[in-house]
Amino acid sequence: MSSDDHRTKVDFTVSKESKRQYWDREERIEALIEKCSRCLEHGTQEKYQFAAQKLAGELGPLLEAHTSRHLLSFDEAVTDHEDWNFATFARWYDEQESFIRFFRTEYLTASQSRREWYVDGLEAALRSMTAIAEQSGIVHDAYAGRADAVGFEMKLGEHLQDGEMDIGDPLELVTDKQVDTLKWLVCGGTGLGKSTGTERFIEDYLAASQRPGRDYKVCDILGMRQGENWLPDVPQQQDDLRRVREEHGLPPSFVDHDDYEPPEIEILHPITQGFSKHQLPFDVDAEEFVVRPFTVPASAFRKPVMVSLLMSRLSESEEATIREVYDDIEQAKDDWSLKDLADEIAGRQELSDKHKSKAIGVLRSLQNEGFIRTAADQHTLDWDAVLSDTDTYSIFSQSLCDSDLSALMTFAYLLDSIYRQRENSNADSEVVLVMRELWEVMPHTRRRSFDAREAAVQEAIGQIGMKVMRQNRHAGIHVVADTQEPNDLLKSIRELFNHYVVYSANKDTIDDIFEWTQNNRTRSFWSTMTAKAGQAGVVGQAEPAIENRDIEFISPVEVTPPSHHHFDVKRDGTGWHARAKYFTPLEVCPECDSDAIERSEDGYYVTCTECGERSLDGSGGRCEELRRPASTDAVHWQDEVPPELEIDPFGEQVGGGTAPDPETFPVRAFAYECLTRAPGTNTAKKHIYAAFNEFAADHGHDRWDFDSRSKLTEFGTALKQHIEGSLKSTTVETPEGDAKAYQDLRLTKIGTEYRDMTGR
């Protein structure tokens, strides 16, 4: 490699800093134009003076520095621009100080005609500078046209084009001609339309699968939040999104869409402890719950996941033994439980009792989540059946998991299992993996869980994710993921996507995306970015860019909302409440309240036989209501740990001593190490709670939320069992005022040290 071809770290840093300065100037120019425009709209002496000073002292010099040209030399380049006025602008340019002086000292006493002359000159100067900025590509003039941006089967949005653009109408916003499988990353902040766009892109896959030539199995495997992904069979309800669809020439929802049928869906959720006591949507006509529970065989977790989890409580010296334990149990049994693994650990002579207790404590806490069982369990997923049914949209949810550990373990299982099923498959169909808010589960050095077990599972997820991203083409897997910032993901993952949809972003993010896609026109892309909700730019695997290397992106694109309802937490609360609300059929005419109504064949319209009114009914005649499986006849979901799978603690003592193991018995160990009886001494409960939380965190547990009444009760009940004598309450004076306290109880030296960690 010649020295001319080699970019040193210094070269790279200088280049990057030069780009940043260039972009900063563009941003300042755009901001100044907007600010001065607002000043002219106000029309006061103070605002006119401010605008004149900004034009003369900042905007003009910035434009000349940015373009390396005298502003009056632009006459030939912008002579046809409707806002360019050479004569007036030249007068302003030569008399800037007199304009500033007039607005500062003479404006209020000047005649009306003299005021208008100076105001017109100031406005002409601003318009002329704006024309120069538009011609230089710093800001865009109004987009004169729109071109349909299409996907495999559906319209995905409208490309906003100026008069000089000619890249096709319609244009293919995404294509797999160059790559067999696509890896989408949709990124943008809250409220910009990221998740709305993601759902439209998924809808395109679903529609394409209904047509000959393509066959996709769509699996939505990450739904941590309030059932936000439970609604693809509900017609679009949001008025704003319905309006945008109509502006794009489409029906407001799938109800009136002749060419698209909503998908058959299945919603699956791990059956954690107490799951059957949750209120879940129940289909009254089908007499079944819409949500189906599933369990995970312990043997389905690969070695990296299980070993990482166990090692979160052990030291490196025990890792070889733990790996050997896993290998031995794998060889001995095709289908094994966490109890089998715990029994194998308990029998290892090379592990100390302390290490056995810690490892078994991890397995017990995991087993107590409830959903990890064996392959023989009645709720184990049949992956062959799930993946072969391409007519059904499979939605996996973690919304009702009681802990982040359950949610992370479930996601790790789903991601790995689908990849393994596809790894050696010769199926004609392809799988589309949908992962919403990917940053919530992927590891990152700047965002690591405080719980060592969760952090270990996240690391394993990162390894699985990298394998999926690198081998997805061979496995026939498309990926549609969204996140707020690409930098929320590991570099080894975020740079492997090949199709980026960007809803506003900072300059560094755009620079990175263009580097990952081997493009370089970052400045041009940045100039098209807007902060308007629903507008995005697309980089990578767009048809115009494949056909013409000079076209590196498509932007801005006003993305079409999905035809199904988009979850809105303020409007809907949760996905399950939304289903019950929207799947409540009309029973009387909205016009005359008559119950003499007839429903159309598809169920979405009712006609009143009394007044003749025809009304839309988004329920389609379907009725869902919230019920608890535990209270529903003929539904028997065993959400407690089966007795034969329960793991007994490895003794109650550590190393033959008298101290309880804090890994297994945190409250008992805290009482033993940090509290002592002291007649006449009372200790504020809030100080004991603070000390316990630091003690728990120091031993790998989550801090307790003592603002929760249930946690206060749980802690008090446990403490009574492990403190000698009765536990009575009183009050004590503290610097913050009177506080509830435990009577005749004080913190030990160790307990005081833990309390002081909180700054008390």
UniProtKB/TrEMBL annotation:
Gene3D superfamilies: P-loop containing nucleotide triphosphate hydrolases. It comes from the Archaea. InterPro entries: P-loop_NTPase, T4SS_component. This is Uncharacterized protein. It comes from Halovenus aranensis.
